[in-house]
Every structure is written in structure tokens, then in C-alpha cells.
Design goal:
By secondary structure, this protein is an alpha/beta fold. The strands form three sheets. It has a six-stranded mixed beta sheet with strand order 2-1-3-10-4-11, sandwiched between helices. The protein has a three-stranded antiparallel beta sheet with strand order 8-5-9, sandwiched between helices. It is globular, with a radius of gyration of 20 Å.
């Protein structure tokens, strides 16, 4: 989810926080951290993070220090965020559910979610099996011996678990081919060019990119299942409640506020907007995290990525 996280959330976050201006007063700085995927333009993303900090200063009437850290997908992002919190470097952050649960495991209630963003009307993420229509693959058993491609092993592992397949992917498939799927176009191209036979990813990623090339019409989605939850804006324990509430309400109202008209196309593209965080919608994401931790799927995924990302 890394590339989409950076492109979408950074833009809308900046827009949302620009809703009003209040004079800055002398107070302990509020520290905002945004994880940014390595490989994205340093100049553009760095400026976005700086602008967010400036806008927050106006919105909250206090000094804001904004920063980013560059991550690669072989990293344990939760551990990095935990270190930043403990070192006094983080008050607010954008996190994926896996990172939030990781922080909770290290120290319960260290951070609290306030808002999330919906995609196609839901705060939860559906993943699907993507294959070529001409191959006529409709069931998981039909994938045995095929070429899987991607970097996201955890959704694949969860799908196999749900279908009672205990065999490791490396034995179930004829080959596991690394594809940098944080940019879903890479996976789509690999599939239509027959470099791979199947990938498993969030449907919202594919839905936002499938019209980029008419060849992608050859691809179909099957065996879809709820897999994850969308990103969360979290705050550190001890962050002033008044600041938290102002940020929350600004996000929730952003999609219908004329101040953000220039970002209307973003909300239209994802058919969603910011909503209040509802812990009841995190049930599946929590299950996946627990299984991933217990069965070391997360370690398997990072090991696979690390072994292939620089090739």
C-alpha cells in the first residue's frame, strides 16, 4: 500500500489541514511523521511534508515540526515508529493497520487511531486473485503449479490459510517471481506479458489502475476476500485532546468542504473520504496480523523482498 499511501494521503492531508488559520502561539512543538516509500521523488514528497507542518501550525495554533522517514518494504516500520515515539520525535503519524498492531504489541495504547479513509465506500480492504481470462482459472486449486508474482506474500498466505492449504507457497507454485507490486502497474504488466500467471492484491489498487492500458481488460478477479483495513491517522498518548478533535473534524468534513474543491477528483477516484475510526471494522485486519505473527508470514515476506528487491 506504500505508493498509494504516499500519493493520496499526503495530498488530502495537506488539503484537510488548510481549512482555517489561527495565529501561532509559543507551546511545545507537535511532531508529525509520515513514512514515505524509498524511490519516490525526494523533492516533491519532502515539500509536501513541510507544507503539512506549516498548515498544522495555523490550524492548531501551535508550533509543528513535520518530518518523514524513508522506508523500504523489507523494514519493520512499526519498530522504527516506536523508536521515534520513545525518542520524543513523533506525536502524529500515518500508519497501516499492520504498523498500528505492531505498536500495540510493543506497548498497548501508546498510539490511538482517530480517522481512516474509505475506498469505494468501505474502510476495509478486499483482496482478489488476479489471472488472465483466457486461462480460465476459477479456483485456488487451479493455481497449483502456476507462476505467482509479487512482493506481498501475506495476503497470499491468508488466502491459502482460509482455503485450508498448509503447503508453503514456494512448493505450491512452480515459481515465486518478485514484482514490486507497491506500484500495481508492475503486477498488471507482468501478468499480461505472461511473466507471471497470478498475483493477489487489494482490489482498490487494481480498480484505480486497470484503465491505464487496454491490455489489462484481459485480466479478471476471482476468489475475492476481506483482507485488511485502510490507513489510519494515529496520535501518541498525551497529545492534547483539543488538537486531536480539531484534526479529526477537519478530516471528516474535508470531502464536502468548498475549501477542498481542488481535491474533489481524488475523492471521486477512490469513491471515498475520511471517516471516524471504528475499531469494530478492524476484526479481519487483526486476525491477519495475529496469523502473520504466529506463523511468521511477516518475516517470510520481508526476507523474500530483501532477497530480491535489489536484483
Amino acid at each position: 500500500m506504500g505508493a498509494v499511501r504516499n500519493a493520496f494521503i499526503a495530498a488530502v492531508l495537506l488539503a484537510a489541514i488548510h481549512s482555517s488559520a489561527i495565529a501561532t502561539v509559543s507551546e511545545k512543538p507537535l511532531k508529525l511523521v509520515m513514512p514515505i516509500a524509498a524511490g519516490l521523488s525526494m523533492g516533491s514528497t519532502s515539500q509536501i511534508v513541510k507544507d503539512i507542518g506549516k498548515a498544522l501550525e495555523k490550524r492548531l495554533s501551535r508550533k509543528v515540526e513535520s518530518s518523514e522517514f524513508r522506508y523500504t518494504r523489507d523494514m519493520d516500520i512499526a519498530k522504527v515508529l516506536y523508536g521515534k515515539i520513545k525518542n520524543g520525535e513523533l506525536d502524529l503519524a500515518l500508519v497501516a493497520p499492520r504498523e498500528y498492531f505492531g505498536l500495540q504489541k510493543m506497548e498497548k495504547d501508546l498510539v490511538t487511531p482517530i480517522v481512516t479513509v474509505t475506498f469505494f465506500g468501505k474502510p476495509t480492504i478486499t483482496a482478489c486473485v488476479y489471472t488472465r481470462k483466457t486461462d480460465g482459472i476459477k479456483t485456488l486449486s487451479s493455481l497449483k503449479g502456476k507462476k505467482w508474482g509479487g512482493a506481498s506474500i501475506i495476503p497470499l498466505r491468508y488466502l491459502m490459510h482460509k482455503n485450508g492449504v498448509a503447503e508453503p507457497p514456494s512448493k505450491y507454485f512452480s515459481s515465486m517471481i518478485y514484482v514490486a507490486d507497491e506500484n500495481v502497474i508492475n503486477a498488471l504488466n507482468a501478468l499480461v506479458s505472461k511473466k507471471i500467471d497470478v498475483f493477489v492484491l487489494g482490489s482498490f489498487q487494481v480498480d484505480m489502475s486497470k484503465n491505464a492500458d487496454k491490455r489489462f481488460n484481459e485480466i479478471e478477479a476471482t476468489n475475492c476476500f476481506e483482507y485488511d483495513h485502510s490507513w489510519l491517522i494515529v496520535y501518541k498518548k498525551g497529545t492534547p485532546p483539543d488538537a486531536v478533535e480539531k484534526i479529526k473534524q477537519t478530516f471528516i468534513n474535508a470531502h464536502k468542504d468548498k475549501e477542498f474543491a481542488q481535491f474533489k477528483f481524488i475523492f471521486a477516484a477512490i469513491q471515498g473520504h475520511f471517516v471516524a475510526y471504528d475499531p469494530a471494522r478492524m476484526k479481519t485486519a487483526q486476525e491477519v496480523f495475529n496469523l502473520s505473527t504466529k506463523n511468521k508470514w511477516d518475516q517470510e515476506e520481508r526476507k523474500f523482498i530483501k532477497a530480491n528487491m535489489d536484483k
